[in-house]
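To fix ideas, we reproduce below one chain and its tokenised fold.
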Amino acid sequence: MTNEPVAELHPDYSSAGARATPWHAVVALLEQAEIFWLSTVRADNRPHVTPLPAMWLDGALHFSTGLEEQEGGNLSTKPALHSHHREQLVSGRSRRHRRGAGRARHRANEAGTPRRSGG
């Protein structure tokens, strides 16, 4: 039995007959990426999207941000996040790791479901 996430394509946003990218191909893309678009939710439920340098390592996205940054504050109260790189969207929850004064390190601890935005 595999521990890989199950890929889903939304029928309203995918071409007929489109197939989801296999997880191993998604991981290969994520391991090469340097910038990810991170989506979080503000306290008033509005979305916040920002590009961040990050790395995919050991099955999780690792990035650093300050609690004074919008995404840092958002993740402190609402740990759900989405990360987008090219056509791959990976959803999960963040976990804070304390490293240094005033800095937060977040780790997506659930690989989530890869979603492909096109067909």
